[in-house]
Design brief:
The chain has 4 helices and 2 strands; from the N terminus they run ααββαα. A two-stranded antiparallel sheet has the order 1-2. Helix 1 crosses helix 2 and helix 3 packs antiparallel against helix 4.
């Protein structure tokens, strides 16, 4: 069984290694490391003033996310190999995530916009009721 420190070392040693296998412990320790480090680095960004509320991201945490993106995908592919599944499922999952995220963000953007002035094809302008 791989320890937390071992999973971190393996994650970076096998940075671009999409072949072979990774155990459950390696995968889940890596996920825990990335999650905890991401939260800690976000707080660090807030404390030192490199966090942007507009983008809800910080410089240090964003760099960490970019640095750990490829090894995270690689350990996921190797984990799939360990259960005799193709690594292409990881690509499918990543693409599916982004395909779902785009319309969600678009709907959130639309929901924050003011309504059209005057009538439109869906009816008259909404009139608030004063109480």
């Amino acid at each position: 069984m791989v320890s937390l420190a071992g999973a971190i070392v393996l994650g970076f040693q096998r940075y671009f290694d999409f072949s072979g296998r990774s155990s459950r412990s390696e995968y889940w320790w890596w996920a825990l490391f990335v999650t905890i480090a991401g939260v800690v680095l976000t707080y660090a960004d807030i404390l030192i003033g490199t966090y942007s509320a507009d983008t809800e991201s910080g410089l240090i945490a964003s760099i960490f996310g970019l640095v750990t993106l490829i090894p995270g995908i690689a350990v996921g592919v190797r984990r799939l190999h360990d259960i005799n599944k193709t690594g292409w499922w990881m690509l499918f999952a990543v693409l599916f995530f982004w395909l779902l995220l785009i319309p969600i963000l678009l709907l959130l953007y639309w929901a924050t916009r003011p309504g059209d002035q005057g009538d439109n094809k869906y009816g008259p302008e909404y009139q608030s009721i004063e109480s």
